């Protein structure tokens, strides 16, 4: 196995593109190094991207925020402007693992690990975030929801590396929230995760919304019917019930030791309701 | 596999070592540098017994490659005491009997040290959540939490 620490993204993508087989990007390593302990795992090349300029930075721009691929999750909650703008994204990222894991794990890694239960991914989808991807053919941007294609699988081509997550600048009176259910107090894999991002109009009604669910399908779900249930409402009981029903109906989960299909579908609706109430309260304060 | 030459700072000392590309920082500390305080409990980032502080953040050294240490600043349990003078956390762990077998103790101490550096006056809940990545199968955690609270109070200049 070879370990490389390129100084530029061009060198990093060239290394990944030129690798014969089993090449992996290393940022926080909290998934990769665990996989490396497995006898079945083989790596020929590891490309550590942490020395690339800007990859460890959160940058505020006119368009929003650029979160570099090597920024540890713990750093998200230390950025006051990011917390104010996207509290749901930050609370989702901060649910990943222990303090020790938070010091290393990244949201790009959470995305590329492509677990259906990834905590930060529904929040990023609800926030309408995009992934900035560098590759041998240049740079492109895709919606976060288009990166995972199924459990453990992503849409990146050979040689491509996600450089950063791009979060938009939120509209006035906009806020997001993320909730997950686990059967213990912390440090577990989501049974269901629900993210809601909504904006309020001048009259206090919801003018825009995005609702995303995790752990209830092979990949993250953006539930448009759930968003439609919220838009135009003041988050009254009828809107909340329509939201919950839309989320339960959209869910297509598996049965496993964490929960049955029936249970997950029910919890998806309950969590979406509560996340919507939190986002609504936060948006009113903005 | 060709070995990688790494230059880093551990407990304020410049340290140079050679390691294999797939060797973890934990293995480097224990097997190459003789720093045996960090323990391998699980090797997969679940137990926290290998906790070390890298560039100010507490991490599981079993989930860091030795090669990644290049140019970084690393703190391990061996650097916690000042000569023969124990760190307040170490002293309070002894006073409160916050350890039995001791395997988890270096990890708890490093994680607690990192907590008190960012939050000198944590609540019991904050301590318990911060230390949730450190597993102890002996003490039941209460004595550990009380030791951290007591050490924090002393470090804030409050008499216990």
TrEMBL record, chain A:
Entries under PANTHER family matching the protein: XANTHINE DEHYDROGENASE SUBUNIT C-RELATED
One Pfam entry name: FAD_binding_5
Recorded superkingdom: Bacteria
UniProt key word Ribosomal protein: no
Record-level Gene Ontology MF annotations: FAD binding; oxidoreductase activity
This protein's UniProt keywords: FAD, Flavoprotein, Oxidoreductase
Alphabetized InterPro entries for the sequence: CO_DH_flav_C, CO_DH_flav_C_dom_sf, Diverse_Substr_Oxidored, FAD-bd_PCMH, FAD-bd_PCMH-like_sf, FAD-bd_PCMH_sub1, FAD-bd_PCMH_sub2, Mopterin_DH_FAD-bd
Domain FAD-binding PCMH-type stretches: 1-172
Name of the molecule in the record: Carbon-monoxide dehydrogenase medium subunit
TrEMBL record, chain B:
Domain 2Fe-2S ferredoxin-type: 4-80
Cited SUPFAM superfamilies: 2Fe-2S ferredoxin-like, CO dehydrogenase ISP C-domain like
UniProt keywords, alphabetically: 2Fe-2S, Iron, Iron-sulfur, Metal-binding, Oxidoreductase
Keyword Ribosomal protein (UniProt): no
A GO term for molecular function: metal ion binding
Record InterPro entries: 2Fe-2S-bd, 2Fe-2S-bd_dom_sf, 2Fe-2S_ferredoxin-like_sf, 2Fe-2S_ferredoxin-type, 2Fe2S_fd_BS, Beta-grasp_dom_sf, Diverse_Oxidoreductases
Protein name as annotated: Carbon-monoxide dehydrogenase small subunit
Protein's organism: Cognatiyoonia sediminum
